[in-house]
Design goal:
Number of helices: 17
Shape: flat
Helix content: 55-70%
CATH architecture of the largest domain: 2-Layer Sandwich
Low-confidence stretches: 1-9, 423-430
Strand content: 5-15%
Radius of gyration: 26 Å
Number of domains: 3
Length: 430
């Protein structure tokens, strides 16, 4: 449904003119609104997948609202955007309160309205009071319509999720992780999982582009595969965290070796569309908690590394970098102090950094580095020499710092690298 067609002799609609200015700067408006929402509402500061959903939801809401204003569409005929509906469902599954979501809409409405009204004043439009009244009326009606639909979607999904099989398990897992006086006997009975032995926690999540009609079946297969590869004992414990992720706990032998390469090989053979983060093997309730935290940190690091990350990440292999994930600015400073201009985010320097990282990890073996990177030995020699000579690196004096800085770059990427042409004041923002 479109608005009335304006005749050539008609004066431009001041409401439309104000909205069109915002439309021209839409990407900046959306970026600021996403940042403000995450900063102001703690429950909406998410991991990367949910951050992308929040961004998509805000984008589609802004696009739709501008479309309503510019084309003078009746807000009561507009439906909530698909991404906004998906985001509401995911928050219901994560037990994020509806009040946080509705507050985000009010915050977005206030900030967007301020921008549009400021443009109306800046443009010196005629009848500013009438323009303000029309804008407030249109945007408020749109907000009421969308919030009503989103609220119903959230409540329906929450009711469905609460009634699903994972709710009781999730409750008792939360008790084990957070309650210092949890009743262990009752928890074991409810979960059918023994806490007296050694535990390995695992985080599993679907690939970002993977669509499946039955995620629970995928995670059941993942649990069975891990149980077999790690020679687990007793019954495993699997809890879906949302429609795209699951936590798994396995009772294993003390000191059980956890080989991410072996797990990755089995996943590839089974063609399971999941990524996996492995915690550490630890005993008792304290071990259950520590392994869970380790798996969560390994997952966060894998998500930070992006598309180039291995399918399976073990905390034991990335612990130093994973433990420092909460200090991105300090990591960025250390990286630049150590690597200088090699710590600039472009493809050419990325090849040099990765080659030098593998070279140091293989005890300076040109042959092993070539095999691992699947390039010719002469290519390795050229890249290493180029990195050392052009960026003035001393492999003998600074080997540990260099390897650590290069490993940080491998996992944190653009979060700790300078953008090409950066003025030197810090890494580019996320």
């Amino acid at each position: 449904m479109s608005g009335p067609v304006q005749r050539p002799d008609e004066a431009p609609d001041p409401v439309v003119l104000a909205a069109q200015v915002i439309q021209a700067n839409r990407d900046d408006v959306i970026a600021r609104l996403v940042a403000t929402t995450e900063a102001e509402i703690a429950q909406l500061e998410h991991d990367e997948p949910l951050h992308r959903l929040l961004e998509a939801s805000i984008t589609e809401n802004i696009v739709t609202a501008l479309h309503v204003i510019i084309n003078r569409i009746d807000p009561q005929t507009v439906d909530a955007p698909a991404s906004a509906v998906s985001y509401a469902r995911r928050l219901a599954q994560r037990d994020v309160p509806l009040s946080a979501l509705l507050r985000a809409y009010r915050l977005g409405h206030a900030q967007s309205l301020d921008l549009v009204l400021a443009e109306a004043v800046r443009l010196g439009l005629p009848d500013p009071a009438g323009t303000v009244i029309t804008l407030v009326s249109l945007t408020s009606a749109f907000l009421d319509r969308v919030c009503d639909q989103i609220g119903r979607v959230y409540e329906e999904e929450r009711e469905r999720w609460v009634g699903s099989r994972g709710v009781l398990r999730q409750y008792w897992v939360n008790q084990l992780l957070d309650n210092p006086r949890v009743d262990l006997r009752q928890a074991e009975a409810a979960l059918d999982y023994r806490l007296s032995g050694s535990h390995l926690a695992v985080e599993g999540w679907l690939h970002g582009t993977t669509a499946t009609s039955d995620p629970a079946a995928v995670f059941d297969r993942l649990t069975s595969l891990l149980y077999s590869v790690l020679h687990a004992q007793g019954r495993p414990l699997t809890v879906l965290t949302d429609e795209a992720g699951a936590r798994i706990w396995l009772a294993v032998r003390p000191g059980c070796p956890v080989d991410p390469d072996a797990v990755a090989a089995e996943l590839a053979e089974a063609a399971l569309p999941v990524r996996v983060a492995l915690g550490t093997v630890r005993p008792g309730l304290d071990g259950f908690r520590r392994s869970t935290r380790a798996a969560a940190r390994a997952k966060a690091l894998a998500l930070s590394a992006g598309a180039g990350t291995p399918q399976v990440v073990a905390f034991t292999r990335v612990a130093p970098v994973a433990l420092l994930a909460d200090e991105p600015r300090e990591l960025a400073d250390f990286v630049f102090d150590t690597l200088g201009d090699l710590a600039v985010d472009d493809r050419r320097r990325e090849l040099l950094r990765e080659t030098l990282r593998v070279f140091l990890a293989t005890h300076r073996s040109y042959a092993a580095t070539a095999d691992q990177l699947m390039v010719h030995r002469n290519t390795v020699h050229y890249r290493v020499q180029r990195a050392v000579d052009h960026y003035h690196l001393d492999l003998d004096a600074d080997a540990f710092d260099l390897h650590f800085a290069l490993t940080i770059c491998r996992w944190h990427g653009s979060k700790v690298l300078r953008a090409s042409g950066d003025d030197g004041h810090g890494p580019r923002p996320r």
